[in-house]
Amino acid sequence: MSIKSENITWKIGTKTVLEDISFEARPGEMLGLLGPNGSGKTSLLRLLAGLKLPHSGRVLLEDRDIQKISRKTVAQRVAFVEQHATTNANLKVEDVVKLGRFPHRSMFSGWTKADEHAVEEALERCGMAAKRHERWQHLSGGEKQRAHIARALAQSPRELILDEPTNHLDIQHQISLLKLIAGLPVTSIIALHDLNHAAMFCDRIIVLEQGRIAANGTPAEILTEDLLRCVFCVRAHVCPSDHHNGPHIQFLT
Ligand SMILES: Nc1ncnc2c1ncn2[C@@H]1O[C@H](COP(=O)(O)OP(=O)(O)OP(=O)(O)O)[C@@H](O)[C@H]1O
């Protein structure tokens, strides 16, 4: 087990946003989190990253309650890229990516070769090496998104949590990002809206509906015509893909 959600319930005021959520992300797998708008994906990811406290239940990181682990230790292994991540200061791209090394440094340690290597690799992997000296404010939305993901990779995480990371990206960068994440030796939990992308890249999928888990399984088990109709309110034809192991969804009018 890598990250586990154990009977999590989370409320805002009297509204129950997440109810009795239990699942586990296995080491090394890419776990897709799907669900209609407002179903609770972002809320769940923030709880998994330890940024919010559940009203009941708990998040376990390798069998330990995340709330009982120091923030620094959590930050050394869990990286979270939020949906609307921003960087206010007018930093250069490489300075933003270097921030990912912060949890690994102490007051006394200088900038090490390991830090340099992690930053270089992250910039390369996200296709941002050529933009390393650009000012943050001068980047396009998609480039900012890739720089944030590079910062998360520079953190050398074992668990990578991403909230709709393909927003703002053109199709080439959407595919290359998902391919990159699928190939990383990390456990990833990734909220996505594109169901065909989830089918192509995710090892398993969890579907949220009104704050509850509606389905949990492999893409082929989960992405059925019935589920698409009942949870997403769309008609679709689903068949095995000729090009990958998952299903292919064709939406019908
Ligand atoms: N700070 C808040 N105050 C009030 N309601 C909130 C707050 N944050 C989330 N909610 C509500 O909780 C529910 C779940 O929101 P959440 O953002 O987790 O959904 P989501 O599945 O990520 O949605 P989307 O696909 O639109 O990004 C929604 O009904 C939302 O209105």
Automatic annotation (TrEMBL):
GO molecular function annotations of the record: ATP binding
Keywords: ATP-binding, Nucleotide-binding
Leader peptide range in chain numbering: none
Domain of life: Bacteria
Pfam family, one: ABC_tran
Listed Gene3D superfamilies: P-loop containing nucleotide triphosphate hydrolases
All residue ranges annotated as the ABC transporter domain in the record: 3-235
InterPro entries according to UniProt: AAA+_ATPase, ABC_transporter-like_ATP-bd, P-loop_NTPase
UniProt key word Secreted: no
Name recorded for this polypeptide: ABC transporter ATP-binding protein
